[in-house]
Design brief:
- By secondary structure, the chain is mainly β.
- It has three domains: 196 residues, Single-stranded right-handed beta-helix, Pectin lyase-like (Pectate Lyase C-like); 97 residues, Sandwich (Immunoglobulin-like); 130 residues.
- Helices cover 1% and strands 45% of the residues.
- The strands form eight sheets. Strands 34, 35, 36, 37, 38, 39, 40, 42, 43, 44 and 46 form an eleven-stranded antiparallel sheet that branches.
- β30 and β31 form a beta hairpin.
Amino acid sequence: MKVKNISGFTATGATGWGARAGIYLCDVDHCNISNNNVLINHNGIYLDHSDNNTICDNNASSSTGCGSGILLRSSDGNCIINNNASNNEYPGIYLDASGSNTITGNTLINNTACNCTYGSIELYFSSSSNTITNNTMIDNMGNGIRIWDYSNSNTVTNNTLRSNNGYGVYLSSSSNNLVFHNNLVNNSNSANDNNPADNDWHHPTLLKGNYWSDYAGVDSGSGTGKHGTAGDGIGDTSIPHPTDGFDLYPYMTESGWLMPVNELNVIQAQTDKSIYALNETVTITCVVQNETGCNITADRVNAEILKPDSSVEWVIMAEGLVGHCNGTFTNTSLYGTYDVTIHTGKTGYVNDTAEFRFEVSTSQVSELDTGAGTYPSISGRHTGTIKPLHDVTNISKMYTYPCAGTGGHSEYVRIYGNDVDVKGMWNGYRGDRHHIIFQKQFALLADHTYNYTIETGSYPQIHHTTILTTPDGEITCAEFVDANGKRYDDWIPAFRLE
């Protein structure tokens, strides 16, 4: 049957048992039922074997004889939106063997639920894959939402269930249902699930649960993982709630998931090199940002360093430019791996950490460093050779030393010869502007000569010499052509292969 719209009617007095309803559709698809007053009927709006219909902005209330405000039986893919389904003797919205429906934005108040056995929203008899979201259920005699009898894979989110006489949410003999971001407030009982391990009472990926007015834990950051963060609005003690198998990530405040959270984020946490010689000074740097990606001044930024002998030392880092922090560590007296954890803190913010490591070693190293250069400087094209004194392994990027207060960087690099030919391009003034990432990792072997071409931008630091000898090897200048076309044979850019 083809019915396009049912809108603007008042339907009342369809009482008695059977298919009696103010509005009744059987085998009808793609109909819009809107802006109707459907009052004092056995069922208000009843869809029977009818799919892909929209029921919106109706008042489907005061149904009698254990009737529902809105009833779907064997009906799939329907949308039930912004209706008032209150003061009914049965559930306000009742799905029987109906799947893939959307129930959103509805108000359900004081439904009597036939002596408290039903929910104001009821999913029964394999009503699966439905979405129940942004509904308000208050002062109902039964449960706020009841899902049972093999009704699986439903999503219940962003609903308010307040002062209902039964359970806020009741699950039974159903699995793979997801319940998160709901407010369960002052219900006679918070929740029921005869096998909570079969359902998710918090989002398993986002690690976010529900607000429970009877939750008595605290947001102390006293646990591990997400529970190691204080001030994020999620309780860290007395979990799961209300009992085993339920919500591991309960919110401290109603609709806490909608509240903005001030966060610190640590980026570009690194040392100036990845491998050091014994007793060499290590420079540690990082950038601290807020949740919007803007640099911010933290109250404290400290580096915890776990040494190879398991002892711990701390470095108090100082801020230069806003958010840019640095510190030095000098006690590299042991060979081995040093694990670094950057800790940040700021009052009123969720704190952050960043972890990385460096090595103190006599073995093969994974960088070649010209060291810092000097000014004067100008952008241009450098060519020359590199001859390492030791094998340099796992090279993946190149750092260009900038002149102070400039954006000195390299825009293009090619290293080739002796079975090596790799290139890298600059990624612009986004993130780490001083590094270029190579297309692939490579190695330079000791006592082998390799050619380089480096095109620089802005003002990189320069070694004003034809041949530069460093602990890592020898670098020569074949020619430098500056941005004005002037040629030199004694300009070598200051860079580090990492």
